[in-house]
Amino acid sequence: MRVLSDRRILIAICVGIGVVVGAAIASAVLLTVRRPRQVIVEVSSLAPDRSAVTYRHPVRATAPTDEAAAVAELERRMKDKPSPYDAGELAELYLKRAQRDGDPKDYAASEAMARRSLELMPHPNAARLTLARIAAANHHFRRAIELVKEQFEEKHVGGGYIILATAHLALGELREAIEAADVVVEKRPDTEAYLTRALVLEAQGRDAEAGHDFTRAAALEVFGNPDDAARLRALWARFLLRRGEPAGARLVLEEAQRLSPRQPLVTAMRAELALRTGDAAGAKKLFEDAFAAGRQVRYLIDQARAQEVGGDRAGANALRARVEGIVRQDLEGSAGHRLELIEVLVEQGAPAQVEEAIALGRTELAQRGGAEVRYQLARALARRPEKPDEAMRQVQQALAGGVRDARLYELASHLDARLGNTLRSGVYAYEARRLDPEGSVGTSWRKLGLGPAL
Whole-angstrom Cα distance, residue 80 to residue 83? Predict the structure, then answer.
């Protein structure tokens, strides 16, 4: 196979000239070869089967109306005669709406109603899992795990293993994440189970297996939930795009858009596709639309990336300053995400902002060691002229978990060039191009924030 042969040649060259065997890319390749379930494939083999992409059921356009009616009826019943079952169901509906629309008020309402349900009936009550999902949404992953384990003690497992897999994945605990995901697939092999495992496999770099699970998740869809079907396809498209499959990502996103035209995640992934294929102006507009529909600051961060790629750095930094204010305000409560603040500080790039990002990144890393945390911390460290070695250690540890990300390879190449490791820098650059093969029109997105502090 060509990819495997290329890697063997590169490893042989590294060994032949005495590069340390533990160097990041060589280590990553050797670990890949030895990992029992790893399959090395050409990126193009991940292209989705068109028949698997198509939603096999009629699409109902009245779901939001049905949801609104259900919420109104449950609210009326809770006023007339409070019930733990009605409270629990209402908490779930509020949470579903919050996850779709990004409204913090719905998260707060969901948490309040779940707690009300537990007050009315402490045991047994699956409302505890609703609280666990809310905790995970707020990046309180340890708390989410604790709540699931409390639920397990009652022998009411429900979707607990899915929450465990998601929380462990966010914490960078990939072994625990895949164990939980495997249990989900074994006990309840449905769409959500396969999607959960696909996301964990993607984080481990087990691409062939992840692609299979995305396909299985789509094949097992049941009638009546096109919004969830669109979300699945948005996440599938993200995976394909990260693996150098823009054509496959576009195919999947077209179906996602048909199913749920205004879903923020679908719009955001269409924007990401535009950004990575050279349409910065189109990406900016789509990210704006995603934020208008979903009110997630993530979409504003991405809009700023599109503006900078399009040549408007001043406008991008003005938007980042706005995001910084929003996130700082949110962090005073429970809705803010520290990692988002780190990202916008790094990309603004003033020395004081970089120093704050490094401090925040180290605090975040002490709580969870996922690849995204290490990447953002490494970016911050890389903006210090004297810190390429420390930044490189964070990149290597992220790659050691199996993650395959063009941004990480781009950063590794940049850092190794600064460290004087020319050959290894070229190897990382090769990996970045392989995962992001669009050429000069689309690759500037992954180079953002790699220079010294401004």
Answer: 10
Each residue's pLDDT tens digit, 69-103: 999 999 999 999 999 999 999 999 999 988 887 78
The DSSP call for residue 366 is: H
- From the CA atom positions of the chain, what is the Rg in Å? 22
Neighbours of 395 (CB within 10 A): 27
Q: Which two tokens stand for residue 208?
A: 């062939």
DSSP 20-51: -TT-HHHHHHHHHHHSTT-----GGGGPPPHH
CB 41 within 8 A of CB 413: no
Distance CA 415, CA 349 (A): 17
Q: Dihedral angle at the C-alpha atoms of 24, 27, 28, 30, nearest 10 degrees?
A: 160
What's the pLDDT score for residue 67?
84
For residue 208, the model assigns a pLDDT of 95
Cα 150 from Cα 160, distance rounded (Å): 10
Task: Give residue for tokens 């399009």.
Answer: 310
> Residue 211: in which H helix or E strand, if any?
helix 207-219
Q: Which residue has the tokens 């395959």?
A: 404
- Contact between 183 and 192 under an 8 Å Cβ cutoff? The reply is no
Cα–Cα distance between 169 and 117 in angstroms, integer? Answer: 29
Instruction: Give Cα 205 distance to the centre of its chain.
Output: 14
**How many other C-beta atoms can be found within 10 angstroms of the C-beta atom of residue 401?**
19
Q: In angstroms, rounded to a whole number, what is the distance separating the alpha carbons of residues 364 and 142?
A: 13
Q: What is the mean pLDDT of residues 431-439?
A: 82
Q: Check residue 14 and give its pLDDT.
A: 41
Residue located via tokens 């449950």: 74
